[in-house]
Amino acid sequence: MLTLPDSWVWDFWFADDGDRHHLFFLYASRALHEPDARHYRASIGHAVSDDLVHWTRVEDALVRSDAGGWDDLATWTGSVVRHPDGTWFLFYTGSTLTPAGNVQRVGYATSSDLATWTKAPENPVLTADGRWYETLADGQWHDEAFRDPWVLPDPDGDGWHMLLTARGRSGPADDRGVVGHAWSPDLRRWELRPPLSEPGHGFGQLEVTQVEIVDGAPVLLFSCLAADMSAERRAGTTGGVWAAPAESLLGPFDVTRAQQLTDSSMYSGRLVRDRSGRWMLLAFHHDAPDGSFVGSISDPMPVHREGDRLVVTGVPAPTARPAGTR
After folding, report:
1. What's the CATH code, domain 7-312?
2. pLDDT tens digit string along 66-115?
3. In this structure, are residues 16 and 22 in contact, taking their beta carbons and an 8 Å threshold?
4. Where would you find the membrane-spanning parts of this chain (predicted)?
């Protein structure tokens, strides 16, 4: 488990150099006192491990830019992939405040060793496009949700794909969550495309998406709390980490049949293989039993498939929401 005595830790993602696991994570000082304030002070930390259990913190990966930059408020969630030429790419969310509210865009940094990162001069490389995605101008949501880039190679070898937390242009405000999509021939130039899912499945946003093939079947992993769901979907649940069936790594995704893997005690789950090749789920500890925010990353929990469902060993069954709460 990764816990920091002086900082909250939350969203995270992995890279594997063949020798060690690298963990990149969002963190902010507990001196802020108010956990929600962490979002506007987030930096990207870095730790390494041989077993996904014992972590050694190393030099931070990224911090926000100076005032006026596209990421001058905070650096948020992303993913790391390696180009065939050996260059590591860290894609991340840049957040900035505008007079209309919080705007999120996507950029990247590169590294030869996973330790020292250089932000790309052409950042940001992607921003929400009103043809397909909701923007602040639509006045439906508390921010311009366009974040959490998950990058993967095309299954047929045609470039690279990016999945994003985004919102569609139609439907009730609490039911517009979609899987955003972009494509690149080389990881540097990006073309935004229409979303890979439709709104209307009960989620206001699908956060921290990831796609993997587990025991021979593709699955979409995402997180959502009850406060960001439609009234019908949030009945009886606090939200948490979810898994939805998929026909391929690029969809279609059956978000209507999303299975809840955890309750709100855990969030932003990630699937990763350990050194034996077994799939593991890690998540960050979100809600304590008294409802306070925790802010630490769990130990790995084994994952396997039973029929069309994922089973996570060591995770308590999701708890029901108390009657009358939101």
Report:
1. 2.115.10.20
2. 999 999 999 999 999 999 999 999 999 999 999 999 999 999 999 999 99
3. yes
4. none
233 phi and psi angles, rounded to 5 deg:
-70, -35
pLDDT tens profile 267-297 = 999 999 999 999 999 999 999 999 999 999 9
CA distances from 212 to 63, 108, 196 (A): 29, 22, 15
pLDDT band for position 20 (cuts 50, 70, 90): very high
pTM above 0.85, yes or no: yes
Whether the link from the prior residue into 252 is cis, omega within 30° of 0, is yes
* Sheet with strand 259-260: strands edge to edge: 207-214, 217-225, 239-245, 259-260
Number of CB atoms found within 10 A of residue 14's CB:
18
Sketch the domain layout of the chain as residue ranges: 7-312
Tell me the C-alpha to C-alpha distance, in Å, between residue 123 and each of 76, 100, 106.
14, 21, 8
pLDDT in tens, 121-176: 999 999 999 999 999 999 999 999 999 999 999 999 999 999 999 999 999 999 99
Produce one character per residue of 117-143: b if its CB has 16 or more CB atoms within 10 Å, e if not. bebeeebbbbbbeeebbbbbeeebbeb
Q: In Å, how far are 94, 160, 195, 198 from 132, measured between CA atoms? A: 20, 20, 7, 10
**What value, to the nearest 5°, has the Cα angle with vertex 209 and ends 203 and 214?**
115
Q: Label residue 66 exposed, middle or buried (CB < 10 Å: 0-12, 13-18, 19+).
A: exposed
Q: How far is CA 297 from CA 181, 269, 280, 321, in A?
A: 28, 10, 13, 23
* CA distance readout (Å), 267 to 223, 224, 283, 286, 291: 6, 8, 5, 6, 14
